[in-house]
Amino acid sequence: MPSANVLVALACLGQSCRPIGAERAYPASLPLHPIWKLSRRVMYGLLAAVVGQTKDTADWLWKHTWAQAVAAIPNPLAWPVVAFPPEVPADAVFPPDRKILLAAGRLDSQKGFSLLIDAFAEAGRARPDWSLVILGEGPLREDLQRQIEVASIADRVVMPGYVGNVADWYRRASIFVLSSRFEGFPNVLLEAMAFGLPAVSFDCKSGPSDIIRPGVDGLLVKTGDAAALANAMARLMDDGVLRMQMASEAVAVRERFSEQAVMTQWNRLIAEICRRSDP
Protein backbone atom coordinates (compact mmCIF):
# COMPACT_ATOMS: atom_id res chain seq x y z
CA MET A 1 0.00 0.00 0.00
CA PRO A 2 2.82 2.51 -0.63
CA SER A 3 0.73 4.90 -2.73
CA ALA A 4 -2.02 5.03 -0.11
CA ASN A 5 0.56 5.60 2.63
CA VAL A 6 2.18 8.47 0.72
CA LEU A 7 -1.19 10.10 0.09
CA VAL A 8 -2.15 9.76 3.76
CA ALA A 9 1.12 11.42 4.77
CA LEU A 10 0.39 14.31 2.41
CA ALA A 11 -3.24 14.62 3.52
CA CYS A 12 -2.21 14.90 7.17
CA LEU A 13 0.33 17.70 6.67
CA GLY A 14 -0.54 20.52 9.05
CA GLN A 15 -3.14 18.42 10.85
CA SER A 16 -3.09 17.32 14.46
CA CYS A 17 -3.62 13.63 13.67
CA ARG A 18 -0.81 11.09 13.87
CA PRO A 19 -1.05 8.89 10.73
CA ILE A 20 0.14 5.30 10.68
CA GLY A 21 1.11 3.66 7.39
CA ALA A 22 0.92 -0.07 6.65
CA GLU A 23 2.81 -2.18 4.11
CA ARG A 24 0.86 -5.32 3.18
CA ALA A 25 3.58 -7.08 1.16
CA TYR A 26 7.34 -7.42 1.24
CA PRO A 27 8.29 -4.12 -0.47
CA ALA A 28 11.32 -5.39 -2.38
CA SER A 29 9.21 -7.99 -4.18
CA LEU A 30 6.93 -5.39 -5.79
CA PRO A 31 8.90 -2.81 -7.82
CA LEU A 32 7.55 0.74 -7.92
CA HIS A 33 7.73 3.52 -10.49
CA PRO A 34 10.76 5.69 -9.57
CA ILE A 35 8.50 8.60 -8.56
CA TRP A 36 6.54 6.46 -6.11
CA LYS A 37 9.75 4.82 -4.90
CA LEU A 38 11.26 8.20 -4.03
CA SER A 39 7.98 9.41 -2.55
CA ARG A 40 7.79 6.38 -0.30
CA ARG A 41 11.34 6.86 0.90
CA VAL A 42 10.81 10.50 1.83
CA MET A 43 7.13 10.72 2.77
CA TYR A 44 7.22 7.78 5.18
CA GLY A 45 9.21 10.13 7.40
CA LEU A 46 6.02 12.18 7.87
CA LEU A 47 4.12 9.21 9.28
CA ALA A 48 4.00 8.59 13.01
CA ALA A 49 4.84 4.96 12.30
CA VAL A 50 4.86 2.41 9.50
CA VAL A 51 3.72 -1.14 10.17
CA GLY A 52 4.95 -4.20 8.27
CA GLN A 53 3.50 -7.66 8.66
CA THR A 54 6.84 -9.37 9.29
CA LYS A 55 10.30 -8.75 10.70
CA ASP A 56 11.75 -8.84 7.17
CA THR A 57 9.43 -6.06 6.05
CA ALA A 58 10.14 -4.01 9.17
CA ASP A 59 13.90 -4.34 8.58
CA TRP A 60 13.44 -3.28 4.96
CA LEU A 61 11.46 -0.20 5.99
CA TRP A 62 14.15 0.88 8.45
CA LYS A 63 16.83 0.56 5.78
CA HIS A 64 15.05 2.00 2.74
CA THR A 65 12.73 4.73 4.04
CA TRP A 66 12.92 7.69 6.37
CA ALA A 67 10.30 6.21 8.69
CA GLN A 68 10.70 7.52 12.22
CA ALA A 69 9.11 4.43 13.79
CA VAL A 70 8.56 0.93 12.42
CA ALA A 71 6.69 -2.02 13.89
CA ALA A 72 6.16 -5.61 12.79
CA ILE A 73 2.57 -6.67 13.46
CA PRO A 74 1.23 -9.81 11.76
CA ASN A 75 -2.23 -10.50 10.44
CA PRO A 76 -4.56 -12.09 12.98
CA LEU A 77 -5.85 -15.59 12.36
CA ALA A 78 -9.49 -15.50 11.30
CA TRP A 79 -10.84 -18.34 13.41
CA PRO A 80 -12.94 -20.35 12.86
CA VAL A 81 -12.47 -20.52 9.10
CA VAL A 82 -15.91 -20.10 7.52
CA ALA A 83 -17.13 -21.78 4.35
CA PHE A 84 -18.72 -20.11 1.34
CA PRO A 85 -19.49 -21.11 -2.27
CA PRO A 86 -18.27 -22.88 -4.24
CA GLU A 87 -17.99 -25.93 -2.04
CA VAL A 88 -16.04 -28.85 -3.50
CA PRO A 89 -16.19 -32.09 -1.46
CA ALA A 90 -12.74 -32.89 -0.11
CA ASP A 91 -13.44 -36.62 -0.05
CA ALA A 92 -14.47 -36.81 -3.71
CA VAL A 93 -11.00 -36.49 -5.22
CA PHE A 94 -9.06 -39.35 -3.63
CA PRO A 95 -10.14 -42.39 -1.60
CA PRO A 96 -9.87 -42.11 2.23
CA ASP A 97 -6.78 -44.32 2.41
CA ARG A 98 -4.63 -41.88 0.42
CA LYS A 99 -2.51 -39.32 2.26
CA ILE A 100 -2.60 -35.78 0.91
CA LEU A 101 -0.09 -32.99 0.60
CA LEU A 102 -2.06 -29.76 0.31
CA ALA A 103 -1.13 -26.42 -1.25
CA ALA A 104 -3.32 -23.42 -2.01
CA GLY A 105 -3.05 -20.10 -3.79
CA ARG A 106 -3.40 -18.31 -7.09
CA LEU A 107 -1.95 -20.29 -9.98
CA ASP A 108 0.72 -17.77 -10.90
CA SER A 109 4.50 -17.49 -10.81
CA GLN A 110 4.63 -16.02 -7.29
CA LYS A 111 3.23 -19.17 -5.71
CA GLY A 112 5.91 -21.42 -7.21
CA PHE A 113 3.65 -24.37 -7.95
CA SER A 114 5.87 -25.48 -10.82
CA LEU A 115 8.62 -26.03 -8.23
CA LEU A 116 6.18 -27.87 -5.99
CA ILE A 117 5.17 -30.20 -8.83
CA ASP A 118 8.84 -30.96 -9.53
CA ALA A 119 9.40 -31.61 -5.83
CA PHE A 120 6.41 -33.93 -5.58
CA ALA A 121 7.45 -35.82 -8.70
CA GLU A 122 10.72 -36.56 -6.90
CA ALA A 123 9.45 -37.14 -3.36
CA GLY A 124 6.38 -39.07 -4.45
CA ARG A 125 8.21 -41.50 -6.71
CA ALA A 126 8.85 -44.01 -3.92
CA ARG A 127 5.73 -43.09 -1.94
CA PRO A 128 2.75 -44.21 -4.03
CA ASP A 129 0.26 -43.79 -1.16
CA TRP A 130 0.65 -39.98 -1.26
CA SER A 131 -1.09 -37.48 -3.54
CA LEU A 132 -0.86 -33.72 -4.07
CA VAL A 133 -3.78 -31.29 -4.14
CA ILE A 134 -3.31 -27.69 -5.28
CA LEU A 135 -6.31 -25.45 -4.56
CA GLY A 136 -6.79 -22.22 -6.49
CA GLU A 137 -7.20 -20.77 -9.94
CA GLY A 138 -5.06 -18.59 -12.16
CA PRO A 139 -3.33 -17.95 -15.47
CA LEU A 140 -0.82 -20.81 -15.21
CA ARG A 141 -3.38 -23.62 -14.96
CA GLU A 142 -2.70 -25.00 -18.45
CA ASP A 143 1.08 -24.80 -18.01
CA LEU A 144 0.93 -26.56 -14.65
CA GLN A 145 -1.41 -29.24 -15.96
CA ARG A 146 0.94 -29.88 -18.86
CA GLN A 147 3.86 -30.17 -16.43
CA ILE A 148 1.91 -32.70 -14.37
CA GLU A 149 1.15 -34.80 -17.43
CA VAL A 150 4.75 -34.71 -18.70
CA ALA A 151 5.92 -35.91 -15.26
CA SER A 152 3.43 -38.81 -15.49
CA ILE A 153 1.82 -37.97 -12.14
CA ALA A 154 -1.62 -36.89 -13.40
CA ASP A 155 -3.26 -39.72 -11.43
CA ARG A 156 -1.77 -38.36 -8.19
CA VAL A 157 -1.92 -34.57 -8.58
CA VAL A 158 -5.19 -32.67 -8.88
CA MET A 159 -6.06 -28.98 -9.08
CA PRO A 160 -9.76 -28.69 -8.12
CA GLY A 161 -9.80 -24.95 -8.74
CA TYR A 162 -11.10 -22.29 -6.38
CA VAL A 163 -12.95 -23.69 -3.37
CA GLY A 164 -14.84 -21.91 -0.62
CA ASN A 165 -14.79 -24.81 1.84
CA VAL A 166 -11.03 -24.80 2.30
CA ALA A 167 -11.46 -25.88 5.95
CA ASP A 168 -12.66 -29.28 4.75
CA TRP A 169 -9.49 -29.64 2.71
CA TYR A 170 -7.29 -28.73 5.66
CA ARG A 171 -9.02 -31.47 7.66
CA ARG A 172 -8.50 -33.98 4.83
CA ALA A 173 -4.78 -33.26 4.37
CA SER A 174 -1.75 -34.59 6.28
CA ILE A 175 0.88 -31.98 5.32
CA PHE A 176 0.69 -28.42 4.04
CA VAL A 177 3.27 -27.10 1.57
CA LEU A 178 4.01 -23.45 0.76
CA SER A 179 6.17 -23.10 -2.35
CA SER A 180 5.92 -19.33 -2.83
CA ARG A 181 8.83 -17.37 -4.23
CA PHE A 182 7.75 -14.39 -2.12
CA GLU A 183 4.86 -13.46 0.14
CA GLY A 184 3.55 -10.59 2.23
CA PHE A 185 2.09 -12.63 5.04
CA PRO A 186 0.80 -16.09 4.02
CA ASN A 187 -2.58 -16.36 5.73
CA VAL A 188 -3.14 -19.75 4.10
CA LEU A 189 -0.11 -21.12 5.98
CA LEU A 190 -1.49 -19.75 9.23
CA GLU A 191 -4.88 -21.35 8.58
CA ALA A 192 -3.41 -24.72 7.68
CA MET A 193 -1.32 -24.87 10.84
CA ALA A 194 -4.36 -23.84 12.92
CA PHE A 195 -5.98 -27.05 11.65
CA GLY A 196 -3.01 -29.05 12.91
CA LEU A 197 -1.12 -29.47 9.65
CA PRO A 198 2.67 -29.69 9.88
CA ALA A 199 4.11 -27.37 7.25
CA VAL A 200 6.92 -27.46 4.73
CA SER A 201 7.77 -24.08 3.24
CA PHE A 202 10.30 -22.14 1.29
CA ASP A 203 11.95 -19.63 3.60
CA CYS A 204 10.83 -16.84 1.30
CA LYS A 205 10.48 -13.19 2.14
CA SER A 206 8.37 -12.68 3.95
CA GLY A 207 6.24 -14.49 6.50
CA PRO A 208 7.04 -18.21 6.74
CA SER A 209 9.90 -17.69 9.20
CA ASP A 210 7.59 -15.56 11.37
CA ILE A 211 5.02 -18.36 11.51
CA ILE A 212 6.89 -21.68 11.35
CA ARG A 213 9.15 -22.72 14.22
CA PRO A 214 11.63 -24.94 12.34
CA GLY A 215 11.77 -28.46 13.70
CA VAL A 216 8.86 -27.75 16.05
CA ASP A 217 5.80 -27.29 13.86
CA GLY A 218 7.27 -27.33 10.36
CA LEU A 219 10.31 -27.23 8.11
CA LEU A 220 11.86 -24.32 6.21
CA VAL A 221 14.07 -24.78 3.14
CA LYS A 222 15.95 -22.48 0.81
CA THR A 223 13.66 -20.50 -1.46
CA GLY A 224 13.44 -21.87 -4.99
CA ASP A 225 15.30 -25.11 -4.20
CA ALA A 226 12.95 -27.82 -5.46
CA ALA A 227 15.31 -30.60 -4.38
CA ALA A 228 15.43 -29.28 -0.81
CA LEU A 229 11.65 -28.97 -0.83
CA ALA A 230 11.36 -32.58 -2.01
CA ASN A 231 13.69 -33.78 0.76
CA ALA A 232 11.72 -31.94 3.44
CA MET A 233 8.44 -33.26 2.10
CA ALA A 234 9.83 -36.80 2.01
CA ARG A 235 11.04 -36.49 5.60
CA LEU A 236 7.52 -35.73 6.83
CA MET A 237 5.86 -38.20 4.45
CA ASP A 238 8.03 -41.00 5.87
CA ASP A 239 7.70 -40.13 9.56
CA GLY A 240 4.18 -40.37 10.95
CA VAL A 241 5.37 -39.76 14.51
CA LEU A 242 7.09 -36.54 13.50
CA ARG A 243 3.97 -35.43 11.65
CA MET A 244 1.88 -35.99 14.78
CA GLN A 245 4.38 -34.15 16.99
CA MET A 246 4.48 -31.16 14.66
CA ALA A 247 0.71 -31.22 14.25
CA SER A 248 0.25 -30.91 18.01
CA GLU A 249 2.57 -27.90 18.06
CA ALA A 250 1.17 -26.27 14.91
CA VAL A 251 -2.20 -25.50 16.49
CA ALA A 252 -0.44 -23.05 18.83
CA VAL A 253 -0.84 -20.46 16.05
CA ARG A 254 -4.44 -20.12 17.22
CA GLU A 255 -3.09 -18.34 20.31
CA ARG A 256 0.11 -16.89 18.88
CA PHE A 257 -1.79 -15.09 16.12
CA SER A 258 -5.18 -14.69 17.77
CA GLU A 259 -7.12 -11.49 17.21
CA GLN A 260 -6.56 -10.57 20.85
CA ALA A 261 -2.80 -11.06 20.62
CA VAL A 262 -2.50 -9.04 17.41
CA MET A 263 -4.80 -6.24 18.58
CA THR A 264 -2.73 -5.96 21.75
CA GLN A 265 0.27 -5.14 19.56
CA TRP A 266 -1.70 -2.49 17.65
CA ASN A 267 -2.97 -0.94 20.88
CA ARG A 268 0.56 -0.84 22.27
CA LEU A 269 1.82 0.94 19.15
CA ILE A 270 -1.01 3.48 19.16
CA ALA A 271 -0.52 4.16 22.87
CA GLU A 272 3.20 4.78 22.30
CA ILE A 273 2.44 7.22 19.46
CA CYS A 274 -0.02 9.06 21.67
CA ARG A 275 2.58 9.35 24.43
CA ARG A 276 5.14 10.74 22.00
CA SER A 277 2.70 13.36 20.73
CA ASP A 278 1.62 14.60 24.16
CA PRO A 279 2.98 18.07 24.98
Please characterize this protein's 3D structure.
By secondary structure, this protein is of the alpha/beta class. It folds into two domains: 2-76 and 258-277; 99-256, Rossmann fold. Helix content is 42%, strand content 14%. The strands form two sheets. Strands 6-5-4-7-8-9 form a six-stranded parallel sheet, with helices on both faces. Helix 8 (208-211) links the parallel strand 8 (199-202) and strand 9. The longest helix is centred in the C-terminal third of the chain and has 19 residues, at 259-277. The chain is elongated, with a radius of gyration of 21 Å. The model has no long low-confidence stretch (mean pLDDT 96).
